[in-house]
Amino acid sequence: MPKIVLITGASSGIGRACAYFLAHHGFIVYAGSRTPSKLEESHPNLYPVALDLTNFEKIKQTIERIHAKHNTLDVVINNAGYGLISSVEHASEEDMQKQFDINVFSIFRVCKAAIPYMKNKKEKAVIINISSYFGKVSFPLFAFYSASKFAVEGLTDALAFELKGIGIRVHSVLPGFTKSNFTDANLVENLSTKDMQSSYKKVLSTLPKLMTNIQNGSEPTAVAQTILDTIQNKDADKRVYVENDSYKIFPLKDALTDDEQMIYRFYKLELEGMQIDKMDLKIAMDAKEILLKEYVSPPTISYLASLCATNKTKLQHTFKEVYKMTIPEYVKKLRLEKANILLKEYPTTIGEVAKAVGYQHQGNFSKLFFEVYGIHPKELLKQNC
Fold first, then answer.
1. pTM for the whole structure
2. pLDDT beneath 50: ranges in the chain
3. Which residue in 145, 200, 264, 295 is the catalytic one?
4. Same domain, yes or no, for 344 and 305?
């Protein structure tokens, strides 16, 4: 039996490409759009449907009709979205609310309407939220779009755990630069921001480069193929990146945020000769960032792997490849480095330091500290009294 798919924002760009791609691969695709007439090409497996994503009752009615006809709804792809180009200073309340209404709240509405018809099936149903590299990296003047995609990542994480026990897989797919009509039809520019070139001259100068890179990006079929692979792979990662020309983002690094700078570093490392897959390297770096914050009570390796959207074996292998030490060895290093600072700079006791860096037994801590630094913590305290 062919799987029944509902995809939103299907009249153009990535959504259109995915709708036809899945139809050609044997899925029954309901292509939702405000303008279904734009889907003029006929295909026996594709059914254009009018879909107003701001109206929950109409969304619910559409899904009810699909389920009544097929007695199932197997896949929902939340693709609809657009990008607001605006400074925070100049964005109106209406601008801000509309950006989140379409990019975020529409996903909640569709999921709320669809979940009752997708849960507890013999074969797991699938929800795929189309996110973006902008959901991990933010650009000036894209604060609202990027924040909406960060929100998509957050809601995907929550839904994945929330729906796991009732038979629904949830994933986000993150395209980078992709050829589509995004720069023509899916970007809304705030004219007040563009008029204020004296205030925003530096960040405005990054826009032509960004637009060119988007227009010269990968074909939308790369996203469609990733979606197909995610549907068919029962063990797909929760967060799936599309392999494309996203590296073109990073020459703009001087205008970007600290998070982007971190991602840029792994590209630089590779250019300097590190022979490791980009995404594997990012997994290792994500794990390191988490451990830096949580070294006192680090998550289990299994849970850390889930936070990095990978599996335990791959995480351990890639981490050791990149940092030349195992995860437990890295946690030990962090703890002892912090302990060394505390012993040198603060009046305290060995027991307090041991607990502060995650060791419950003072004796074990002292032994490990001596092995690394060649001095007993007690002696170090004496020296610094």
1. 0.63
2. 183, 244-273
3. 145
4. no
Q: Is 92 a catalytic residue?
A: no
**Is 366 labeled as catalytic in the residue annotation?**
no
Residue 111: which residues within 8 A CB-CB, separation 6 or more? 76, 78, 127, 159
User: Tell me, what's the pLDDT at 217?
Assistant: 62
Q: Which of 3, 11, 20, 86 is catalytic?
A: 11
CA-nearest of 29, 52, 51, 53 to 41 is 29
338: domain range?
Answer: 329-383
- pLDDT in the model for residue 5: 98
Catalytic pick from 12, 86, 131, 306?
Answer: 131
pLDDT of residue 250: 39
Positive or negative, the Cα torsion across 63, 227, 22, 219? positive
d(CA 384, CA 375) in angstroms, rounded, equals 13
Pair (126, 215) in one structural domain: yes
Does any domain span residue 270?
no
**131 catalytic per annotation:** yes
| 132 in active site | no
Catalytic residue among 3, 136, 149, 282: 149
